[in-house]
UniProtKB/TrEMBL annotation:
Its cofactor is FAD. It holds the Pfam family FAD_binding_4. The lineage of its organism: Bacteria, Pseudomonadati, Pseudomonadota, Alphaproteobacteria, Hyphomicrobiales. This is FAD-linked oxidase C-terminal domain-containing protein. PANTHER family: GLYCOLATE OXIDASE SUBUNIT GLCD. PROSITE patterns: FAD_PCMH. Keywords: FAD, Flavoprotein, Oxidoreductase.
Length: 498
């Protein structure tokens, strides 16, 4: 797994592999347990394919009761568990552990209830993001968060990573559209947080669970808010001679008090790769392409398009194209959503980074990334949610060339450090996982990290849920209490650390 260090496997658990597989097969019978090497091969990685690790065993439960029993068994026998949705995570959050059970939730794939009166839909976590919109579109409704991987990514994974998408600028991330969850704790206890009501009493435990990356529990049911489709939606393409000019236009549009339904940006390498891949009608003679969508009543949309055109022109736009039909608008977005696979045509491999910055620093950060590209001798294609400053630089490399993966990792780390330096954060929607775990110290001090781990301890005292992810240094829960180092001796020296 390259230079990324994971917890050392427990030899005792490894020795009991056959026994564990038998016990889990009794809980999830039939084809619910996969323990052969060939059978487990599809689960050895997630969307961060540069890193791979075979699990101890894979379990595919179908009911909340089965999930509860599996977690209770693992809790009682001190076996780590890695929850997994569709495996589209780009931060290594679903990469398995050698001594851990991989709990794959793909069989939880039913839409349980559509409640138009309360504008809510309840689904199992394995339902794909796009399937929610498809389930309600005939009545003129949709689910707002729309990650580029929405055709494949699961709602449960969206909750784990607090996913966003191209329309999150106006309509919010998963956290802003999530009403309630059913979650199973490592002890096997089933807990409900939130519901169809707008707000929950007491502590915001729903907010705590959202974006927790499988470290606190396993989601088995999700209730989300649906919205009525807008009367009118039109998209505009703006081309610029420089990425900095495009970034300036983004900041100026927001500064003018205009909040588009979506605002996305791509640079020349991404534009050319995407146009060759899907033929979205993008201009090929610009350095940066800005896609701005306005939605709402027709009169308001027509007015705002004019205002946005004025702002883009003042920032130096050299190309303007307004969608005239719904099919044309869809084509503009098809290109953007196909950008990640399209860039795969440019190099054998790439790392998709994820950092968020203040919008006003876009020109500065884009210029700095070009300098880093020269320094590392690696190309980078930029595709990002410009409206909320969520960057997705795609660092191109060839894993078959010795040292290139290491260079790509260092390049990516420098980008994320820069994001924090200019007032941003390490991740916008892909999560920390293992990719950014060792960079958490760039953003948080030891006190911050200790408090975060105390929350983890409240839910999972034995650190059995997704260990080795998010936190750069392992602290056992006992160490976070009223313990201290005495004469250079750590308390509980028998506890493993990594």
């Amino acid at each position: 797994m390259s230079g990324l260090k994971m917890p050392a496997p427990n030899s005792g658990v490894l020795a009991r592999r056959a026994e564990i597989a038998r016990a889990l097969s009794a809980i999830v019978p039939g084809e619910g347990v996969v323990s052969t090497q060939d059978g487990m091969r599809p689960f050895e990685t997630d969307g961060l394919t540069a890193y791979r690790q075979m699990p101890l065993v894979v379990v595919l439960p179908e009911t909340t009761e089965q999930v509860s029993k599996v977690l209770r068994y693992c809790h009682e026998n001190e076996i780590p568990v890695v929850p997994r949705g569709s495996g589209t995570s780009l931060s290594g959050g679903a990469i398995p552990l050698e001594d851990g059970v991989l709990l794959a939730m793909t069989r939880f794939n039913r839409v349980l209830e559509i409640d138009y009166e309360n504008r809510a839909v309840t689904v199992q976590p394995g339902v794909t993001n796009l399937a929610v919109t498809k389930a309600v579109s005939e009545k003129g409704f949709y689910y707002a968060p729309d990650p580029s991987s929405q055709i494949a990514c699961s709602i449960g994974g969206n909750v784990a990573e607090n996913s966003g998408g191209v329309h999150c600028l106006k309509y919010g991330l998963t956290a802003n559209n999530l009403l309630g969850v059913e979650i199973v704790l490592i002890s096997g206890e089933v807990v409900r947080l939130g519901g169809k009501h707008l707000d929950s009493e007491g502590y915001d435990l729903l907010g705590l669970v959202t974006g927790s990356e499988g470290l606190l529990g396993v989601v088995t049911e999700v209730t989300v808010r649906i919205l009525q489709s807008p009367e009118t939606a039109r998209a505009v393409l703006f081309g610029f001679d420089t990425s900095e000019a495009g970034g300036a236009a983004v900041a100026a549009i927001i500064a003018a008090g205009i909040i588009p339904g979506g605002m996305e940006m791509m640079d020349r390498p991404a534009i050319h790769a995407t146009e060759a891949y899907v033929g979205a009608g993008y201009p090929l003679d610009v350095e940066a392409l800005l896609i701005v969508e306005l939605d709402g009543p027709k009169g308001e949309v027509d007015h705002l398009i004019g205002e946005v055109e004025k702002i883009a022109s003042a920032c130096g736009s050299v190309y303007v194209r307004v969608s005239q039909t719904e099919a044309e608008r869809a084509a503009f977005w098809l290109g953007r959503k196909a950008a990640f696979p399209a860039v795969g045509r440019l190099a054998p491999d790439y790392l998709c980074m994820d950092g968020t910055i203040p919008r006003k620093t876009l020109p500065q950060v884009l210029a700095a990334m070009r300098e880093m590209s020269v320094h590392y001798g690696l190309e980078v294609a930029n595709v990002f949610h410009a409206g909320d400053g969520n960057l997705h630089p795609l660092i191109l490399y060839d894993a078959n060339i010795p040292g290139q993966l290491d260079k790509a990792e260092a390049f990516g780390a420098d980008i994320l450090k820069l994001c924090v330096k200019v007032g941003g954060v390490l991740t916008g929607e892909h999560g920390v996982g293992i990719e950014k775990r060792d960079l958490m110290g760039e953003m948080f001090d030891d006190i911050d990290l200790s408090h975060q781990q105390r929350v983890k301890c409240a839910f999972d005292p034995q650190h059995l849920l997704n260990p080795g992810k998010m936190f750069p240094v392992l602290h056992r829960c006992a160490e976070l209490g009223r313990m201290h180092v005495h004469k250079g001796q750590l308390p509980h020296p028998d506890l493993p650390r990594f």
